[in-house]
Amino acid sequence: MISFYFITSLLGLIKNYIKYKQVQLLLFIRSPILCYFIQLIIQTNNIYKILIYERWFMFLFKIFRSLYNDDYNTKKSKYIKKYQLKYIESPIEKKSPRKVGFK
User: Fold this and answer.
1) pLDDT at 90 (0 to 100)
2) Model-level pTM greater than 0.70?
3) Residues 6+ apart with CB under 8 A from 4
């Protein structure tokens, strides 16, 4: 049963090696450890349910991390250069910033 937890990690390890040419032990072991804790918390041996909950947790974690780090704005210029994207400015962004101060 524990071997099922390592299948997702092994596939991720292979993908990361092919894409980035690096192996990170922490990323490899993160998924099985998370699955183990999910199994302890929900008290089930249904491997499919545990794997689904682990993917959902990681998906939500990555969404909130991306929002917190403001990835959209930090990577916007990279994507403009890489994909020749054209962003449409909203009316709020077109306005010049107001000066705030005392008279």
Assistant:
1) 63
2) no
3) 47, 51
Residue-wise pLDDT for 39-91, tens only, equals 999 999 898 999 899 999 999 999 999 999 998 888 888 888 888 877 777 66
Q: Judge whether 40 and 34 are in contact, CB under 8 Å.
A: no
User: What is the amino acid identity at position 86?
Assistant: K
What residue segments make up the domains of the chain, in order of their start?
2-91
* CA gap 62, 33 in Å, rounded: 17
User: What distance in Å separates the CA atoms of residue 101 and residue 72, rounded to the nearest whole number?
Assistant: 30
- Number of residues written out for the chain: 103
Q: How far apart are CA 51 and CA 41, in angstroms?
A: 13
